[in-house]
Amino acid sequence: MADEAIQKHILSAEWYQNSKRICAYVSCASLREVDTSHIMADLLEKQRRTAGMKVYVPRIEDKESHMRMLHITNTDDDLIANYMNILEPTLLDSVGNPREEVMQATEPLDLLLLPGLAFDRKGGRLGRGGGYYDLFLQNYLLLAKDKGWKSPLLVALSYSPQIRDDAVPVDATDVNIDALVNSNGILTFSSQAEERISSS
């Protein structure tokens, strides 16, 4: 099964295992996203026993492409379904404190796992048209540059039929991914991906 194979590629990868601050998405079956249930379970278990490890997942703020990445510790109590029935983190944690947000974090992200509708073989990613990931990535990459942080590795999860030989439509605001994981393995598109993935 493709979902199992894709997650297995990621879970066994050295670049994944070495990452300590990670943004991942909580998959939604109705959107036909690649399943991340095993990845999320692994991340949250590692977070419980690894000092300094942080897991963040997206929360859509409005219909103007604003999305935040908020820290969670489990999927049972920390997530609620939004108006599109996508599981998102609550604004407050179990003791009533605001959740830590990636944009206010004091340390850089190592890895960001993201979904998409279609991808090309040069790292182009086509989302669902809302621009949420593109705006978040633009803002985070500007923050990282301002703080002198290394950019996180941007890795998308994809079923093989979603990968196109022709270019996906992109514009100046779109951010290319570094690598793409499908059931057959990992495709790399950037020098950072070559360095961190191909050498591991």
TrEMBL record:
Keyword ATP-binding: yes
GO cellular component: mitochondrion
Listed Pfam families: 5-FTHF_cyc-lig
Sample GO molecular function, one term: metal ion binding
EC number: 6.3.3.2
InterPro entries on file: FTHF_cligase, FTHF_cligase-like_sf, NagB/RpiA_transferase-like
Residues binding substrate, per UniProt: 26, 33
Signal peptide interval: none
Database matches in SUPFAM superfamilies: NagB/RpiA/CoA transferase-like
Cofactor list: Mg(2+)
Biological process per Gene Ontology, one example term: folic acid-containing compound biosynthetic process
Positions contributing to ATP binding: 125-133
Catalytic activity: (6S)-5-formyl-5,6,7,8-tetrahydrofolate + ATP = (6R)-5,10-methenyltetrahydrofolate + ADP + phosphate
PANTHER family: 5-FORMYLTETRAHYDROFOLATE CYCLO-LIGASE, ATPASE INHIBITOR/5-FORMYLTETRAHYDROFOLATE CYCLO-LIGASE
Name of the protein this chain belongs to: 5-formyltetrahydrofolate cyclo-ligase
Organism: Ceratodon purpureus
